[in-house]
Amino acid sequence: MIVTKQKKLDEIIEKIKGSVFIFGCGICSDTSRTGGRKEVEAMRLILEDRDIAVEGTYVIDAMCHFQKVRKAVRDNKEVLSNAGTVLVLSCGSGVQSAVGVLPDTIKIVSGVDTVFLGNIENLSSLKEMCSLCGNCVLNETGGICPVTLCPKGLLNGPCGGMKNYKCEIDENLDCAWVKIYERSIIQDTIKDIKKIAKPKDYSVKKPAATLRFTGSHR
Amino acid sequence: MMPINFKSGNKLKESLDTGTFVYTSELSPERGIDISKIWATYELLKDRITAFNITDNQGANMKMSSLAGVIYIKQFGGEPIFQQTCRDRNRMALESDLLGAAAFGVKNILTLTGDYISFGDHKHAKAVYDIDSVNLIEIVKGLNSGVDMNGNKLDGCTDFYIGAAVNPESVPLEPQLIKFEKKIDSGCNFFQTQAVFDTDKFGKFYDFYKKYKDIKIIAGIYILKSAKTARFMNKSIPGIYINDRIINELENASEPLKKGIEIAAGVARRLKHMVHGIHIMAYGIEDKIPYFLDEFER
User: Fold this and answer.
1) pLDDT digits (tens, 9 = 90+) for A18-69
2) CA distance A37 to A27
3) How far is B197 from chain A (nearest CA, A)?
4) Total-model pTM
5) Residue A210 has what pLDDT?
6) Do A191 and A100 belong to one domain?
7) Is A27 a member of any domain?
8) Are residues A61 and A153 both part of a single domain?
9) Helix, strand, coil shares of chain B as percentages rounded to 5?
């Protein structure tokens, strides 16, 4: 899931012009507790408390899905036309779905910051384990991602800053390469991590504007 | 004829090749363009130090570039070791700076990962780490053979003597040794180690590396000036392990700095038969390095 966190309230309010329509996202923002039903309702009350009129609210089950956003816009056409601002409590992808679907004249404000692709340990603990790098090394690193879990994204082993199994940037953080080493012993795949990893190929990833996924089903 | 005149040869490589015990130390550029401190330290130490490492934004603090630093050392007539970290530059910038250094006659490179950005004074900067230190060694080896990392032919190739870092006291040691061997396989010629405080632990590392006859090991020796410094380093400097025995010795000494020099010289003497040289680190007390060397050679 995509982990988001709410922007500072004053930063959101500063951007709002006129009355507001609020969109939430029923998948990731709901799990992040930034834009599910509860949070959308809470935002409505907060804005009304600040004398900002809320024309309506709607939670789309996946705001990254253009067709679902189009349908939601159709279903709320009249109320939306009264709003000066559309506030989107969804990741940057969801915000841009709204930008892509709504007329250019409508002001769209993002209410959250998009942080990372997260694994859910529990609802109070979302962990980043994959960086969406487009060039997966998990088959070479015992299934543990050094691109994400090593702050330096090192591909060939630990840096000299590792100390007592921990990362140099935080003594509570396990060194990803120690974890990879330990798992490679158990899995009997040490030969994989002894191979020199070539530099990552960033051409698979960028420029983002030219990246189109046409499906791998063909 | 272009008016360029840099001394050829490589004092570090030639010394190591002929079995001469080498001494290296560090000169750190300032945050600014004043090079008078580097010059003063260089003048003080030049007769006793084989080659000087020029640090690259050390501790992730923004300083004058190590590239400019190594060029100055060449102009002074000294032998510089060009430190390059992977933290601040992508592969293209690293290659381009390496060519620039080589064009100024720089012969030694120390390839480093680089302390993480959050340690320094530019905490909000983007950490680059486009490639790692193993990849950087491969790149330098390629430049030496006349091609860039994509196989494009160079117009004039480099002649770098390639160095890297290793932490012999790393716990656990095995992942560090895997990386050490990757660096050797990539074309590394010499290693400068992280500061050594425990010679028994170093002995285990020695047992591992002694089979690599052609690889030169220069042991890191740190001159501690007080117990407070030692505690600070244990807490704040990545990869440093200073044991309680050393901290207590410093704590109970009437002259902690003198004791620190004695401790460092003791460590260096115990390592001498296992290594090809020592790398002396004495941040802020570089003027004490001659006393350390006297104590070491006594």
Assistant:
1) 999 999 999 999 999 999 999 999 999 999 999 999 999 999 999 999 999 9
2) 10
3) 14
4) 0.94
5) 72
6) no
7) yes
8) no
9) 45, 15, 40
Across chain B, what does the average pLDDT equal?
A: 96
Same domain, A186 and A107: no
pLDDT at B4 over 80: no
Residue type, B154: L
* B85 in Cβ contact with A159 (< 8 Å): no
| A71 domain residue, yes or no | yes
A137 and A112 in one domain? no
Buried b (16+ CB within 10 A) or exposed e, A18-57: ebbbbbbbbbbbbbbbbbbeebbeebbeebeeeebebbbb
Select the residue of A155, A169, A178 nearest B116 (Cβ to Cβ).
A169
Query: Are A141 and A107 part of one and the same domain?
Result: no
Query: Does residue B293 register a pLDDT over 60?
Result: yes
* Domain-located, residue A218: no
Q: Which domain holds residue A186?
A: 133-204
The helix (run of H) or strand (run of E) holding residue A40 is helix A37-49
Query: Which of A116, A147, A178 is the last residue in one of the domains?
Result: A116
pLDDT tens digit sequence for B127-175: 999 999 999 999 999 999 999 999 999 999 999 999 999 999 999 999 9
* Cβ atoms within 10 Å, residue A68: 17
Is residue A160 located within the same domain as residue A186? yes
∠ Cα B295 B286 B109 (to 5°): 105
CA B194 to chain centre: 8
Instruction: Choose one of A51, A81, A116: the last residue of a domain.
Output: A116
User: Does B6 score more than 90 pLDDT?
Assistant: no
Question: Touching check for B201 and chain A: CB below 8 Å?
Answer: no
Q: How many domains does chain A have?
A: 2
Residue A121 lies in a domain: no
Residues of B in contact with A153 (CB under 8 A): 129
Statement to judge: residues A110 and A142 lie in one domain: no
Check if the beta carbon of residue B136 is closer than 8 Å to that of residue B111: yes
pLDDT, position A205: 77
How far B28 CA sits from the closest chain A CA (Å)?
A: 20
